[in-house]
Specification:
The structure is a homotrimer of 142-residue chains.
Chain A (H helix, E strand, L loop, with lengths): L1 E9 L5 E4 L1 H5 L8 E10 L4 E7 L3 H14 L16 H11 L2 E7 L2 E2 L5 E7 L7 E11 L1
Antiparallel strand pairs in A: 1-8, 2-7, 3-5, 3-8, 4-7, 5-6
């Protein structure tokens, strides 16, 4: 049984949905030692989130941002928690809709993702800054 | 420590929410060997998803489809990613709302679900075709 | 390798979002034995859910309830599953949006949460009653 945990910082990104699969994988060469296992990717924030979606067309990421910002509007009049700006409470709500973590099976040293699946960082703040991620790998050693 | 991973294909289903608990369980008799553990069920697609909800009244599944298709409308004018049809971009969005995986505790050889909980395949495309699922079991052997 | 599973009951709470981090942690002193691991927290219901969000300002919890109850309205005319009351079908939908489980990394005997992250019980029914939670811990022993 193999356990590995690492905390990394992702650089600040603009508001929107960003493909980070390659960036994450470069941080965990240890995954190659696992024959069958699980990867957990966890974001330590409440105004950004993680999701899995289409990894090819950037328009998908653009449409995700358009949709979620329509669905949870900045500065909606019914929000009470407004001290940190009109984008803050919507960011918290989007974070709970998408969720803070992903659990991806590992097979023969690799994430067992579908052909079109990529990992997205969902940055819900206008100026969210750098984001902290915990990656936990576990599984059977090859 | 016991690890088991299996990839299965679910047959094509029409758009909507479908109860698949029994179908999944028939694929994993190995679960009976585990005293305490976790099951991860992961869908390798970005226009279908998995969720847990009420397992008794088919109207719940119908109302879920009604609600989510109102909430994320086919062919909304603000979508840019439209080449694969009016149901494609909404399918991606619903997939991120519901999420691609479930993590269910195992207790004494069985999924430790509540009485009314069932596993749903959420098919968000009009013609999504067959869907690939990865089931990963891990735990202490009995 | 260490496995631990416990089922607990949370007392009935009113409809809304409730911070339960401390209440959960008091139930699992066993977590201190783990150096690297994962915690899974699973709710055995389909009209309540779990999420992680801001742990400081109660207005965030209030705004979450306001938003989700606007977004998934009680008694919407298109719901067919209405026998258990106007808040029941919306509760099922919110449960699938937020999800039934959390997967949180364990580091050196503690949940590896961000400074501002807390665990919420999301009670979507007007009178949901007591709620059953399964906590599963796994990891390397210190």
């Amino acid at each position: 049984m193999f356990w590995f945990q690492k905390e990394i910082f992702l650089p600040a990104r603009k508001r929107g949905f960003h493909l980070i699969t390659g960036e994450l994988l470069r941080e965990i060469p240890e995954i190659q030692q696992i024959s069958i296992g699980m990867a957990n990717i966890f974001i330590k924030h409440t105004s950004a989130s993680l999701t899995i979606n289409e990894n090819a067309d950037p328009d998908v990421r653009r449409d995700m941002e358009t949709y979620f910002s329509k669905s949870v509007p900045d500065g909606a009049p019914y929000f009470v928690h407004t001290m940190e700006g009109p984008d803050d409470m919507p960011a918290h709500i989007k974070a709970s809709i998408m969720g803070p973590s992903l659990n991806i099976p590992i097979q023969n040293g690799r994430l067992n993702l579908g052909t079109w699946q990529g990992i997205y960082l969902c940055e819900h703040r206008d100026y969210g800054g750098s984001r902290k991620i915990v990656i936990t790998l576990q599984g059977e050693k090859k």
